Amino acid sequence: MSGRREEILDAALAIADEHGIGKVSMRALAERVGVTPMALYRHVSDKAELLDGMVGRLLAGLLPPDAGKARAWDERLAALGHAVRTMARRHPWAAQLLFSRPAVTPDAVRVVDLIYIALLEAGVPDREVPRLERLIATFVIGFAASEASGRFGSGSVDPRGRRGLLPEGELPGHSRLAPWLDLPSDLDTEFEADLDDLLRLIKAVAGGQD
């Protein structure tokens, strides 16, 4: 990637951090980097390519330069999960963008390939690798998006308090689980448990091959 293109994508990320992803436009970006909108087209042909480039820029920063076979496959996938969560905390709008755009730039595709390699090393059959990659991405990005948006926390909506206003006796599942639903959320512990469950699922798929 050229230095000028990196500068442009970094400027787009900064605009999104300051004003939200909806405010990222070719005009706003041109103003940020001090050029005319037409001058941007030498580096990004349109808004779609800009957004794809932002996805690639975000994903490229998830893994260290020595990512690959430096650690066991499960350690690498866990590290990736933590990196996505950290990235979403730094850029709360990023999960929305990652869910809305495919991984098509070289940087983005390399990250997907690292997941493929980890799954293959785990012994997952080739035919199941793409499905499990989608499952991993959906879980990790979904958790990060829910956390960043406040869906998992009480926030101003206070879902736990509102849940108490529901009619008694009509929701037997909620009634039985009430003591657990009212416990404070420990998202760090929950994320680790979810990752462990996901890794066990991968091992189960690998172990169940014909």
TrEMBL record:
<feature type="DNA-binding region" description="H-T-H motif">
    <location>
        <begin position="25"/>
        <end position="44"/>
    </location>
</feature>
<keyword id="KW-0804">Transcription</keyword>
<dbReference type="Pfam" id="PF00440">
    <property type="entry name" value="TetR_N"/>
</dbReference>
<dbReference type="GO" id="GO:0000976">
    <property type="term" value="F:transcription cis-regulatory region binding"/>
</dbReference>
<keyword id="KW-0805">Transcription regulation</keyword>
<keyword id="KW-0238">DNA-binding</keyword>
<dbReference type="InterPro" id="IPR050109">
    <property type="entry name" value="HTH-type_TetR-like_transc_reg"/>
</dbReference>
<protein>
    <submittedName>
        <fullName>Transcriptional regulator, TetR family</fullName>
    </submittedName>
</protein>
<dbReference type="GO" id="GO:0003700">
    <property type="term" value="F:DNA-binding transcription factor activity"/>
</dbReference>
<dbReference type="InterPro" id="IPR036271">
    <property type="entry name" value="Tet_transcr_reg_TetR-rel_C_sf"/>
</dbReference>
<dbReference type="InterPro" id="IPR001647">
    <property type="entry name" value="HTH_TetR"/>
</dbReference>
<dbReference type="Pfam" id="PF02909">
    <property type="entry name" value="TetR_C_1"/>
</dbReference>
<dbReference type="InterPro" id="IPR004111">
    <property type="entry name" value="Repressor_TetR_C"/>
</dbReference>
<dbReference type="GO" id="GO:0045892">
    <property type="term" value="P:negative regulation of DNA-templated transcription"/>
</dbReference>
<feature type="domain" description="HTH tetR-type">
    <location>
        <begin position="2"/>
        <end position="62"/>
    </location>
</feature>
<dbReference type="InterPro" id="IPR009057">
    <property type="entry name" value="Homeodomain-like_sf"/>
</dbReference>
